[in-house]
Write a structure and sequence with these properties.
The protein has helices spanning 47-50, 55-74, 88-92, 96-107, 116-128, 163-171, 183-195, 218-227, 235-238, 246-256, 260-263, 276-290, 302-312; strands at 8-13, 18-25, 31-39, 82-86, 111-113, 137-141, 146-150, 155-159, 213-216, 242-244, 294-297. With 315 residues, the chain is α/β, with parallel strands linked by helices. It has two domains: 8-116 and 302-312, 2-Layer Sandwich (Nucleotidyltransferase, domain 5); 131-297, 2-Layer Sandwich (Nucleotidyltransferase, domain 5), CATH 3.30.420.150. A hairpin with a 4-residue loop joins strand 6 (137-141) and strand 7 (146-150). It is globular, with a radius of gyration of 19 Å.
């Protein structure tokens, strides 16, 4: 793609958040961000209990998509250069197609439901697309699933664990009781069982430097702020932060033992206060399973992989 061409837009519709990236290529062929936005309508609220989308959550998500569609047009992105994808929330919802039809009718955006493999592949491409090391391992924890990608993209695995679904299932959320008994202990066991699908890929001799591990997603960026003991959540200071693997478990249990009001005084996003402990435990268990000693936080998630793919198709 020529650098003078119009930008592309990539929208990631997840269980908890909707993210929009508008980008183009700079003169060096690297991804240049025009606008990057995040909203938290929590489309997957209540999905674990009903298997269907909550009508209020669907309305919130469509309202966000409508706002993004208008902004994409204002930024001069042609319709053929826009891609909108749904992840675990639409893979699980029995009424996903009805939601997709309603969203298109109201916003003009066509939503594609990504497979687990495609989601993992694009998350990996987001990290390595601008010259990253092909040996990098990528962990992407979302509201409804956790992906592990590595071995130059050949390893692509997904587990059905995420911050929203785990919180609703074992801890309860928004005043609703948990769906299953057992509380935090049961949540830990569920996550431990799920990550057994991941190989212990970093079981390397101490004298060998292991591949870099990169964590994507809101749970990871909030962990970075907690680990740095910031005064308030700051995504810019979260970007690139390297943390010891054990920090994820330490902070998960800290939040487990902290009520909501106290959590809101921590350097985290208020919209994640109720679900963050679950997301952090997904990070902790995955890092332990693969044998990582440290990890780096990156905000270059799925939407960056989508944008890069759109741009690469036009070269």
């Amino acid at each position: 793609m020529k650098t003078g061409s119009p930008p592309v837009a990539a929208v990631d519709l997840g269980t908890n958040t909707v993210l929009m990236l508008v980008a183009r290529l700079d003169e060096n062929g690297r991804l240049q961000v025009v606008e990057d936005r995040c909203e938290g309508p929590r489309l997957g609220a209540g999905l674990a209990a009903r298997g269907r989308l909550d009508s209020a959550a669907a309305t919130r998500a469509i309202d966000v998509l409508g706002g993004f569609a208008r902004r994409i047009a204002e930024l001069g992105v042609p319709p053929g250069r826009v891609r909108v994808v749904g992840t675990a929330v639409l893979r699980r919802a029995a009424d996903a197609q009805a939601f997709i039809a309603q969203a298109r009718a109201r916003t003009g955006l066509a939503i594609e439901v990504l497979s687990e493999e495609a989601e993992a592949r694009l998350s990996y491409a987001a990290v390595v697309g601008d010259g990253g090391d092909a040996s990098t391992l990528v962990i992407d924890v979302g509201g409804g699933s956790t992906e592990l990608v590595g071995d130059a993209g050949k390893l692509r695995l997904s587990a059905p664990i995420g911050a929203v679904v785990l919180t609703e299932t074992y801890l309860g959320d928004a005043g609703a009781p948990p769906l299953l008994p057992g509380g935090w202990a049961a949540l830990e066991q569920c996550v431990e069982n799920a990550v057994r699908a991941f190989p212990a890929v970093l079981a390397v001799p101490p004298e060998r430097a292991p591949p870099e591990t990169v964590c994507l997603g809101g749970s990871a960026s909030n962990l970075a702020c907690l680990d740095q003991q910031l005064v308030a959540y700051d995504e810019k200071k979260a970007e690139g932060h390297r943390f010891p693997a054990q920090a994820a478990a330490v902070q998960a249990r800290r939040l487990r033992d902290t009520d909501r009001d106290a959590r809101l005084r921590l350097p985290i996003e208020a919209s994640r206060a109720s679900i963050l402990a679950s997301g952090l435990w997904c990070i902790a268990a995955t890092l332990a399973r693969i044998g990582a000693r440290t990890a780096r936080v990156s905000g270059r998630g799925l939407r960056f992989g989508l944008a890069r793919e759109l741009l690469d198709q036009e070269e």
